[in-house]
């Protein structure tokens, strides 16, 4: 079974001899797709907090949807945590576009095993 996919490859320059190209898929089976950026700072637990940032997985545009997300936190207090989950549904904006809310608990990590809470809103 073949699924039509459209997109483009982004090439910045040739300054790095071991460079790679970024592939941006713009539609899947005829439906436009999009992603959102997300970032934040975890709760303060076990004497520290972590920063995190990432990009959601693609989802179709123009229909009710959510996005899966996954990233790892900054290294603080000698360790990092995984941040992953599924955003809430799209929240429409009055002038068009939308964003998603997300929240969760990080993976367990650290010499003194612990978790952190996180929450936020994706980019538009």
Automatic annotation (TrEMBL):
Biased composition (Polar residues): 104-124
Highest taxon above the source species: Bacteria
Species for this entry: Sporolactobacillus inulinus CASD
Record protein name field: YmaF family protein
Matching Pfam families: YmaF
Region (Disordered): 100-124
Entries under InterPro entries matching the protein: YmaF
């Amino acid at each position: 079974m073949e699924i039509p996919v459209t997109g483009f490859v982004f090439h910045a320059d040739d300054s790095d001899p071991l460079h790679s190209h970024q592939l941006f898929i713009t539609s899947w089976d005829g439906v436009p797709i999009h992603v959102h950026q997300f970032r934040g700072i975890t709760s303060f637990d076990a004497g520290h907090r972590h920063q995190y940032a990432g990009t959601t997985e693609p989802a179709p545009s123009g229909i009710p949807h959510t996005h899966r997300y996954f990233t790892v936190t900054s290294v603080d207090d000698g360790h990092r945590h995984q941040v992953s989950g599924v955003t809430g549904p799209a929240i429409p904006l009055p002038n068009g576009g939308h964003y998603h809310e997300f929240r969760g608990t990080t993976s367990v990590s650290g010499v003194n095993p612990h978790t952190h809470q996180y929450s936020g809103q994706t980019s538009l």
